[in-house]
UniProtKB/TrEMBL annotation, chain A:
Keywords: ATP-binding, Nucleotide-binding, Transferase, Ubl conjugation pathway. SUPFAM superfamilies: UBC-like. GO terms for cellular component: UBC13-MMS2 complex. This is UBC core domain-containing protein. The active site is at C88. Residues 4-150 form the UBC core domain. Belongs to the ubiquitin-conjugating enzyme family. It holds the Pfam family UQ_con. Signal peptide: none annotated. One of its GO terms (biological process) is regulation of protein localization to cell surface. The keyword Amino-acid biosynthesis does not apply. The keyword Signal does not apply.
Automatic annotation (TrEMBL), chain B:
Keywords: Coiled coil, Metal-binding, Repeat, Zinc, Zinc-finger. Residues 9-19, 434-443 have a biased composition (Basic and acidic residues). Residues 161-224 form a coiled coil. Residues 517-527 have a biased composition (Low complexity). This is RING-type domain-containing protein. NHL repeats lie at residues 686-729, 733-775, 779-822, 826-870, 874-917, 921-961.
Length: 173, 961
């Protein structure tokens, strides 16, 4: 499979390594070039600030004609991300375009963390809570972030994965 | 100089370093051009260089293979990956999408982004973005040149600096050469000091000796007196001692005799009787003696000696006081020497420095002014020494004497020397230099640095003169600043003088005076308005030249008409209306078109009316775009035909008659070639009317003209101070106006314009604009004399646009003013000068009804300037000359319905036609008094039916073409 890897995937991988997006790291799995270990730092102005979320990203055979498959590995309290870590994001579904890249997809996910959209929920219970009592929801999200996302940060540190998880604040807190 | 390549190298190095960094760690403003290009050449799908780039209708480009793979073949549609726009796939499939040729072309360049090439490209882009040098107009790293304050490239700056250095070295040489003047002077001074000491010593010795001599004399005299006194004393005392001795003896004798007699009487001694008797005698004698003894005590004992200084006693001290005089002797020729110095020194230092040529305009003007002032002063200073040279010398000596006396009287040297030195250094520029270099202000720093040249010739050293532009630039002899001081010398013709803001009041005064004179004169000889008023001398020359030309044309025509009916040549007959847009022409006139004898064109067209009209229009079109080419073409064609014919004729025996015909043909060809274009036919007037006089139907210097509704024509009958209205046949209809400055009266009205309801007249010497109804009823006037807004100085031409705005050519204010239909000032534009957008005596004005452009006859610049409705200068055309497209004092302007611009080329006595872009189309008219000939054509207008109405000023008539 790796032998027939399209040039595009190679290029994207290279560029992700050479010119990483701040707050995002994506590393191809050693055994499978289509499988990426992704870490996204919670945006500063969101309830997920201070957490680092682990994701997995898989490029299907049809990529770039088909969207990559992305899933949160870290538990997160977010109306558009369900318990299994599946993400409700249009560009990962019908709005996919071959002009999009791993980089853009991950940036979109980062943006989704900044701006949760309870009107188009995936985790209905979270969305309800978010709509009913946003303050409470945000509080929960913060608790979850502290509870789960910091753990993964430590793990990431252990695994030497977060070389580019720039914000030093994370380490301080 | 040497550091800039280094800089470049550094910049390149930095660039390379930045390139090697990942993009996110580069500075935000850093753009790698090559990477940018590479990005543009990358397909967003395969992230590779485009392969067969295809352009989608949404303007996004992708590789053909990539597009193929994301096409929905089932629904035969394609969503743009970039913008998600849906496109139907063409019948032939995705490959039928438009290839992106631009990108293909770029791809062929094969750019490979390496730091080196990027740096080069960066450099290229840098160079591309560079400013242009303001001097050589090349792109380069420009920095302001210290010399001329313009941004200039290094080379130009270097050149300037070199030039400056050359000048400086010249100056330096001069200075060096003349520097010894100062050292010499100081040497001379030290020599002079020595001389002075010596001189004073000797003088002192002289004085001493002189006085010593007289002291000896006095001493001798004194001694004499003393000796005399001594002798006197000795004598007197001897005499008096002797006398005293004698008296003492006498006294003792007497006392002895008394005592003896006493004794005798007392009987103490016995004495003989004889003796007694003798004694008795003795005593008797003794009493007698004593009685008589009355010594003159004063005479004997009181002789006194007194010294008197004599009769001239007072003279001596006076003589002493006045005796002796210290004279200061000036070296001979001192005054002359000074004069020589003046001749030598200051003037030759106006070096024609080449660096001064590059001064910016403002500097130049400033220095010019400075130089004017300087020159004015120096003129004074040079003129003065001539008449009273002696007085100067006297004054100088006086000064010297005073100085010396001062020195003699107050020996305090410090005071003197300081004053002297400050005097000397005040004018020296080197002192100023020194002062400017040392930070602390010096006490002897003069308050103003302006040094009048008359005072400074000796002390100002050469380089002190501010660098001045070379002298060869000839300026008006009298500086403008001096003008207001000599107002009396102004010419007494106020109407011609251009506005001079300073002396307005005087002007008004002189105008009024001259006006009265003129009034008187014009009553006597109302027609004697001087020709020179309208034409400077130069036009007269032009007219003579044109006379020659006119003569030749006339001869052509004459010869033409002498041989009617020859096969190839048709005589020209006047054509009344020939413009393509004019009313249909009658058959008789068609035949007379002077174009039909060219064989080539005969073949095409014949004399059929529509074809003819069509061809004429074509020709007109062609001639509009390039009339010169047209003329060349026809003339070449004619020449060729003539040559052919000539050879044919030469081969056979030619009769004289035939030769004559041939000549005629040649001439015809020549003249025809000159008069290419359809406007040629305008050369004959349809109507000529008016003659000199003041009665109805007569005209006296007609100027402005305009068309009124109903085919009427109005003209400013300027020297009759009225507006005359004629019908199209030249029949007098009515008149209004009349001399005066009251409402509805006019004074030498010049310009005339009309709208649907009113006539606007520029009331020239009343400096106002008067608005009349169509029947001549006065509505209102506005304006007044002056340079301000809504004031005029000889308003000349007027024009009205569609909105009723009134445009006025304010001649002697050299501008155009715009007013709304009620006479409220709106705007003004133009200023005096010859640059684009400037005006010099604008005379007439016209506004295009289509483009709304404003055409101004910039008369003294011999051009027509075109402005947009806001007064922004668009372009100008024409220059001084007599060829087609050139002008000599152009005057009237009219714009016909085809947007042709018709110009009254006054100095050339012709009408010229241009298209809207200022391309010369044609011209007609020559100098003369016949029909179709013009003298000093003033204004033109176009009537509704397309006729051109011309005011033939000096023929005092109007011609309609």
């Amino acid at each position: 499979m790796a032998s027939s890897l399209p040039r595009r995937i190679l290029k994207e991988t290279q560029r992700l390594a050479a010119d990483p997006v701040p707050g995002i790291s994506a590393n191809a799995d050693e055994s499978n070039a289509r499988y990426f270990h992704v870490m996204i730092a919670g945006p500063e102005d969101s309830p997920f600030a201070g957490g680092v979320f682990k994701l997995e990203l898989f490029l299907p055979e049809e990529y770039p004609m088909a969207a990559p498959k992305v899933r949160f590995m870290t538990k997160i309290y977010h109306p558009n991300i369900d318990k299994l870590g599946r993400i409700c994001l249009d560009i990962l579904k019908d709005k996919w375009s071959p002009a999009l890249q791993i980089r853009t997809v991950l940036l979109s996910i980062q943006a989704l963390l900044s701006a949760p959209n309870p009107e188009d929920p995936l985790a209905t219970d979270v969305a309800e809570q978010w709509k009913a009592n946003e303050a409470e929801a945000i509080k929960t999200a913060k608790q979850w972030t502290l509870a789960y996302a910091r753990k993964s940060l430590k793990k990431a540190l252990l695994h030497q994965h977060c070389l580019v998880l720039a914000p030093t604040k994370i380490i301080e807190t | 100089m040497s550091d800039s390549p280094q800089n470049e190298a550094e910049a390149r190095e930095r660039m390379r370093e930045l390139m090697s960094r990942p993009p996110s760690s580069r500075p935000a403003d850093f753009v790698n051009p090559l990477e940018k290009i590479e990005q543009l050449l990358t397909c967003p799908i395969c992230l590779d260089r485009y392969k067969q780039p295809k352009l989608l209708p949404c303007q996004h480009t992708f590789c053909y293979p990539c597009l193929e793979s994301c096409a929905d073949t089932l629904h035969r549609n394609l969503k743009c990956p970039e913008c998600r726009a849906e496109h139907n796939i063409p019948y032939d499939g995705v490959k039928a999408f438009q290839p992106n040729y631009t990108l293909t072309g770029f791809l062929e360049i094969h750019l490979q982004a390496t730091p080196e090439s990027a740096a080069e490209i960066e450099e290229y882009i840098h160079r591309y973005n560079l400013e242009r040098c303001k001097i050589c107009d090349e792109k380069a790293d420009c920095e302001p040149c210290a010399h001329c304050d313009r941004k200039a490239c290094k080379e130009c700056r270097q050149t300037h600096m070199d030039m400056l250095k050359r000048d400086m070295s010249r100056l330096l040489n001069q200075v060096k050469r003349l520097a010894n003047r100062i050292t010499e002077a100081s040497d001379n001074l030290s020599k002079g000091i020595d001389m002075l000491t010596m001189n004073c010593e000797t003088t002192k010795a002289e004085v001493k000796e002189y006085f010593h001599r007289y002291q000896r004399e006095l001493k001798k005299k004194e001694d004499n007196f003393l000796v005399e006194i001594d002798t006197f004393q000795a004598n007197e005392s001897r005499v008096m001692t002797n006398l005293r001795d004698v008296l003492e003896i006498e006294s003792s004798n007497m006392s002895e005799a008394i005592s003896r007699l006493d004794a005798v009487i007392k009987g103490e001694c016995v004495i003989e009787d004889a003796e007694l008797v003798r004694m008795k005698n003795t005593f008797t004698e003794g009493i007698e003696y004593l009685k008589n003894f009355q010594p003159d005590a004063d005479e004997l004992f009181n002789r006194k000696l007194r010294f008197s200084s004599g009769e001239d006693a007072s003279k001596l001290p006076a003589a002493i006081a006045t005796s002796g005089e210290l004279c200061i002797l000036d070296p001979q020729f001192s005054g002359k020497y000074q004069k020589k110095e003046q001749q030598y020194l200051p003037r030759p230092f106006r070096l024609p420095l080449e660096s001064d040529n590059y001064r910016v305009k403002a500097d130049e003007r400033a220095s010019m002014r400075e130089r004017e002032a300087d020159r004015a002063i120096s003129r004074h200073s040079h003129r003065n020494p001539e008449p009273d040279e002696s007085s100067i010398r006297y004054r100088r000596r006086q000064q010297l004497e005073d100085e010396v006396w001062n020195r003699l009287r107050n020996p305090a040297p410090s005071l003197l020397t300081t004053s002297v030195t400050s005097e000397a250094t005040r004018t020296s520029p080197w002192a100023a230099e020194r002062v400017s270099r040392s930070v602390e202000p010096t006490k002897s720093r003069p308050t103003s640095l302006i040094v009048p040249a008359s005072e400074s010739p000796r002390t100002v050293s050469p380089a002190s003169k501010p660098p001045l532009p070379p002298v060869e630039k000839n300026d008006p002899p009298s500086p403008p600043a001096a003008l207001p001081q000599i107002p009396i010398r102004k010419p007494p013709l106020p109407r011609q003088q251009s506005s001079n803001d300073e002396s307005l009041n005087e002007k008004v005064e002189t105008i009024r005076r001259a006006h009265q004179q003129r009034q008187a004169a014009s009553r006597a000889v109302s027609s004697e308005e001087s020709e020179g008023e309208d034409f400077p001398v130069s036009t007269n020359r032009g007219r003579i030249r044109i006379v020659c030309r006119a003569a030749s044309v006339n001869r052509d025509d004459g010869l033409m008409s002498m041989i009617p009916g020859t096969g190839t040549v048709q005589p020209i007959q006047p054509i009344t209306s020939s413009a393509p847009h004019s009313a249909p022409v009658t058959g008789a006139e068609q035949v007379a078109i002077p174009v039909t004898h060219f064989t080539g064109e005969e073949d095409e067209g014949g004399i059929v009316v529509p074809a003819w009209l069509q061809r004429r229009r074509q020709r007109f079109q062609r001639s509009r775009t390039n009339p010169d080419l047209q003329a060349q073409f026809t003339s070449a064609r004619v020449q060729q035909l003539l040559a052919e014919r000539q050879s044919r004729l030469d081969s056979s025996t030619t009769t004289d008659e035939e030769k004559e015909k041939l000549n005629v043909l040649r001439q015809r060809g020549r003249s025809a070639s000159r008069e290419a274009g359809e406007w040629r036919a305008r050369g004959r007037p349809r109507a000529v009317f008016g003659r000199k006089g003041g009665k109805e139907g007569e005209l006296n210097w007609p100027r402005g003209v305009c068309a009124l509704a109903g085919g009427l024509v109005a003209t400013c009958d300027s020297s009759n101070h009225r507006v005359c209205v004629f019908d199209r046949e030249g029949k007098f209809v009515r008149q209004f106006g009349g001399y005066g400055s009251g409402n509805g009266q006019l004074d030498s009205a010049a310009g005339l314009a009309s709208s649907k309801l009113r006539v606007v007249v520029s009331d020239r010497y009343n400096h106002r604009i008067s608005v009349f109804g169509l029947e001549g009823d006065h509505l209102f006037s506005f304006g007044g004399h002056g340079p301000g807004n809504a004031k005029f100085n000889n308003p000349w031409g007027v024009a009205i646009d569609d909105l009723g705005s009134i445009y006025v050519a304010d001649k002697d204010n050299h501008r155009v003013q715009v007013f709304d239909k009620n006479g409220q000032f709106i705007a003004k534009f133009g200023s005096f000068g010859h640059l684009p957008g400037q005006l010099n005596s604008p005379l007439f004005i016209a506004v295009s009804k289509v483009s709304h452009q404003v055409y101004v006859s910039d008369s003294s610049n011999h051009r027509i300037s075109v402005f947009d409705p806001h007064g922004v200068h668009l372009f100008s055309f024409g220059e001084e000359g007599f060829h087609g497209g050139q002008f000599k004092f152009p005057r009237g302007i009219a714009i016909d319905s085809q947007e042709n611009v018709i110009i009254a080329d006054s100095g050339n006595n012709r009408i010229q036609i241009f298209d809207a872009q200022g391309q010369f189309v044609s011209s007609f008219g020559t100098w003369g008094g016949g029909a179709g000939q013009l003298k000093g054509v003033e204004d033109v207008c176009v009537t509704i039916d397309g006729s051109i109405v011309v005011t033939d000023r000096e023929n005092h008539r109007i011609q309609i073409f």
